Amino acid sequence: MYACTMVPPEVEPTPQDIDVPPTYSFTRNGLTTVTFPGQTIRIAMATELINAMLDFEQSDKKHLLELYNNKTAVGLDADPFQFDYLNRSDGSIREKVAASLEYFSENIAEGDGIRQLLEDWIGAQADAVFPYANRRATPGQAGVLPDGLFPRYVNGNGIEYKELVLNSLVGALMLDQILNKYLSAAHLDLDNSRVDNDNLVLIVGNNFTNMEREWDAGYGYVYALSKNVAEPNQNIGEDDMFLNHALGEVNRDSDFMGIADTVFNAFKRGRAAIVARRYDLRDEQVAIIRKELSKVIAINAVHFLEQGKLAINPDSPNYGSAFHYLSKAYGAIFSLRFTRDPFTNGPYFSRVEVNSFLTDMLNDGPNGFWDVQVNTLNGISEAISNRFGFTPQEAKER
After folding, report:
1. Residue 137 region, left (φ>0) first, then alpha (ψ -120 to 50), else beta?
2. Dihedral, CA of residue 386, residue 184, residue 237 and residue 295, to nearest 10
3. pLDDT value at 7 more than 70
4. Which end of the chain is least crowded, N or C, by CB within 10 Å?
């Protein structure tokens, strides 16, 4: 439970007077009511983790796993992060992976399995890739592959764990927390949250209600590291490597341009609806956010599949580029498990469907991506795009 204090209700508009500001700026008595410190911390932690996965000189398995688990969070003395404020945090990446209220509170075993799978992939970077960083990768043999100016470090199946983990966290951490926890009615209205919001009961020592704080937490998983958090679309896609980047990349595609504005405006309107105590309008914006952010994951998954397919061109294959994109695709497809269809109230693709796609990508031969067939990639790409109502060609170029 959280401690609260009362403020006079007349400082807020009545339900009929919904005021949607031009930016994500909300104040009370001249002070901001917007807050998302936990999201800022976890995105920063995840950024350090991904960067460390390519730090062959300074990182080892123990260090990578400490970045994921943050031993400080479980009472052990460890300072794995570059920045002290992260080391002092009692939070971790792992604790928020596959940890949403609506998808995993009654499905603990699956959540535990997903968290462990991410840990296994992170550890495999040290075990299966680090020792072979100076060797040319071949089928069944980990190593490095050229890709223009960028070396791609892969395991024996061609998996680039850094890209796999990054794109998996977009769904398993950011998307799941937004769509299936912080913006869920079950969470926003938990305990006395709606009554307290109606009566402007503020969390003691703060300038916001519990509902305002929880909505902002969802917002933070997209925009917390933005240069301008009130107007984040000025630099959308540039401010972190996770969901913000994914949204910005899709928004650059002329076939999907404007999706960033749609998402931002829904966050802004939903927050304004909370201030005005219009929960029907709030929930309408949740449906928009769920649909559009889920679509971002799908578009990126298909884009990565299509780009990977191009690089496998049998006349002049670029395996470094192909495996880079296919590893991104693998992570994005994994993230489909955490999407949320506002009409069915479940993921756009079930766990079984997602696992089938992932199995198919690695099962065309004994060496995973080295053996993957174009027809396999086409089938997955079409299945995903059909479910969301766009075409592979629309997602292909940007």
Report:
1. beta
2. 0
3. no
4. N
As a whole number, mean pLDDT of residues 233-251 equals 98
Residue 6, pLDDT > 90, answer no
Supply the pTM of this predicted model: 0.94
The C-alpha R_g of the chain, in whole angstroms, comes to 22
What's the angle, vertex CA 105, arms to CA 99 and CA 107, rounded to 5? 95
> Which residues are within 8 A (CB) of 249 and not within 5 positions of it... i.e. 6 or more apart?
237, 300, 303, 398
Tokens matching residue 128: 């299966």
For residue 172, the tally of other CB atoms under 10 A from its CB is 27
Q: Bridge partners of 28? A: 31
In the predicted model, is pLDDT for residue 73 greater than 80?
no
- Give the residue from 288, 292, 285 showing the smallest Cα distance to 257: 292
- Smallest Cα–Cα separation from 192: which of 178, 207, 211, 179? 211
Query: Quick one: which of 9, 5, 16 has its CA closest to 273?
Result: 16
Please provide the DSSP assignment of 245-313 as one string: HHHHHHHHSTTTTTHHHHHHHHHHHHHHHHHTT-HHHHHHHHHHHHHHHHHHHHHHHHHHHHHHHHHT-
- Please tell me the distance from the alpha carbon of residue 197 to that of residue 203, in angstroms, as a whole number: 10
Write the CB contacts of 396 (distance below 8 Å, at least 6 apart in sequence): 302, 303, 306, 307
Please list, in sequence order, all residues whose beta carbon lies within 8 angstroms of the beta carbon of residue 248, skipping any fewer than 6 positions away: 236, 237, 238, 260
Burial class (CB in 10 A: 0-12, 13-18, 19+), 38: middle
CA–CA distance, 210 with 134 (Å, rounded to integer): 52
Exposed/middle/buried for 298, CB within 10 Å: 0-12, 13-18, 19+?
buried
Terminal Cα-to-Cα distance of the chain (whole angstroms): 47
Backbone angles phi, psi at 136, to 5 degrees: -70, 130
pLDDT, averaged across the chain: 94
CB neighbours of residue 162 within 10 Å: 25
Tokens of 225: 């590291």
